Amino acid sequence: MLLLRGAARRFSPDWALVSAAGLIMALPPLVLFLSLQRRFVEGYTSSGMSG
């Protein structure tokens, strides 16, 4: 039982690091979308698609 607890502590993820990596990975697409949002909307409305 002690061996399992030691292994669980040793291989458990650092959640702060995982969260920081997720945020860093999500920022570039978000910034890209926000900077090109006007073009996305223009393309959507000009193509005649309806929601």
Describe this structure as you would to a colleague:
This protein is 78% helix and 0% strand. It has 51 residues and is an all-alpha fold. The longest helix has 21 residues, at 15-35. The protein has helices at residues 2-10, 15-35, 37-46.
Write the layout of secondary structure elements.
Elements: H1 2-10, H2 15-35, H3 37-46
Task: Give short descriptive properties of this protein.
single chain; 51 residues; 3 helices; rod-shaped; 78% helix; mainly alpha
What's the quick description here?
The chain is an all-alpha fold and 51 residues long. The protein has three helices and no strands.
- The count of β-strands is 0
What's the helical proportion of residues? over 70%
H/E series, N to C? HHH
Largest sheet properties:
none
- The 3D shape can be described as rod-shaped
Separation, N- and C-terminal Cα atoms: 56 Å
Instruction: Enumerate how many helices there are, as a single number.
Output: 3
Q: Uncertain runs with pLDDT below 50, 5 residues or more?
A: none
Strand percentage: under 5%
| pLDDT averaged over residues | 83
Which structural class do the helices and strands define? mainly alpha
In terms of quaternary structure, what is this?
Answer: single chain
Q: What is the CA-atom radius of gyration, in angstroms? A: 21 Å
